Predict the 3D structure of the following.
Amino acid sequence: MKNNLLLDTMRIQTESYKSHRMETFIKKKVKTMGLDYTTDKYGNIYVAKGDADLYPTMVCHIDTVHTINNNVQLVKIDDKLLAIDRTNCQRYGIGGDDKVGVYITLSLLQYYDNFKAVFFKDEEVGCKGSSQADFSFFSDSNVVLECDRRGIGDFVTSISGIKLSDDIFQESISSILTKYNRKCCAGGITDVGEIAEKTNVQVANMSCGYYDPHSDNEYIVVSEVEATKQMCIEIFDKVNQDGLRYEINGNRISYTPAVYGGFGYGRGYDYYDDFYYGEDVGTSQSTVDVNRQPVGTCKLDTICPNCGAHEVWYEEYDDVCFCMSCQTSVEIDYDDFIVDEKHMETIPIDDLYEVEDKIIDTVNQEFNGNCWYDDNDNKLKKL
C-alpha cells in the first residue's frame, strides 16, 4: 500500500481528552507543508493557506472513541484496512471515525493553493471543541465540508432540524453527487452542525468509507476513502469556479423539533446517528420519512454514570451506548441490559471478535503463523 499519509494517520492513537499525539502529528504535517497554524483557547488547530478572497474549507475531528492502545497493528486485507491488538490478536477499532476525516483534510490542504482547514478536539463527547471555535475563521469560507459519517452513500444536509445547506448549493453540485452515488439526507450531530448554528456559510457532512464505528470491528474501505476525497476536490473546484460564498438566507430551521434534537413531532434524535423512537403524533409539518423504522435501538433500565439521568440508550448498528440527556457515550455492561419493551423486544448482539478466514490467514502472516482461531470463544488467539 503506497498511501503513506493514510497509513501514518491511521496509526496515530487518539481518544477524547487524550489527543495530544494526533495534535502533534497534524502540526508537524502542517509545518512540513511550509504552513503556519494557530490554536484557540480550547486547543483546536486552524490553518489558512494562500491569499484569496474566498477559501474552500474543510473541518474534521481528531479524537476517536477508542482507548489509546500502544499494541495496535494495522492489517490490509484486499481493499480493507483494519486493526489488530498484537497482544491477543483480537480486532481493535481502527478509529476511522474520524481519522479518515483527518487524512482527507490534510490531503486537500496539501492539494490546494488556497485552502482553510480546522482540526477540532473532542467531538465524540459532545462537539466540545467545535462548540468553542473561533467562528470568525469561516467568514471568508465559500463552503465548509466535513467527512465524518459511516458508509459511502450519504451527503448530510441537515442535523437535528438545522439546515446545513439549501437547494441552490445542492443543485449546483447535483451532478457530482450523482456521479458518486450520494443522496442528500439528515444526519447525526457533528462539527459542521456547530458551524451552521453560529454562521451563515453553507456546510455539509458526508459518508467517507469507515464502517462499524464505535466498535472493535471498525474498519475502512480504502477505495471509498479515496473516492470521497476526490468527490470533495470536485465539489470545491465547482464552488471555486462559481466564485460565490454559499450562504443560508433566512432561517436555518427546517422543521420544529418536539423533543431533544428531534426530527419533529414526537420523534427523537440519536446523538450518534439517525434513529427514531417514540409514538407518531403527526408529521404534517415535518420533513421526516414517517415510514422509517428504528434499527436495533432500545432504552436501557439504568442511569447515566456521567450525569445521573435515566436516559441511556443502546444503538445496535454502531454497538454504542449513549445518554440522551448529557449527550455523551456511556460505558455499560452489556450483560445488564434490561430492554424497554415499548421500543423493541430483543437486541441480538454480535460477537465483536468474529472474523473471516481470510482475516485469520492475513493475521497469521503478520505474526509468522503464531495465531489460531478458537471456535469455542470465536476469537483469534496467540500460540
In short: Confidence is low (pLDDT under 50) at residues 255-296, 337-356. Residues 256-352 form one domain. Residues 267 and 278 are 6 Å apart (CA to CA).
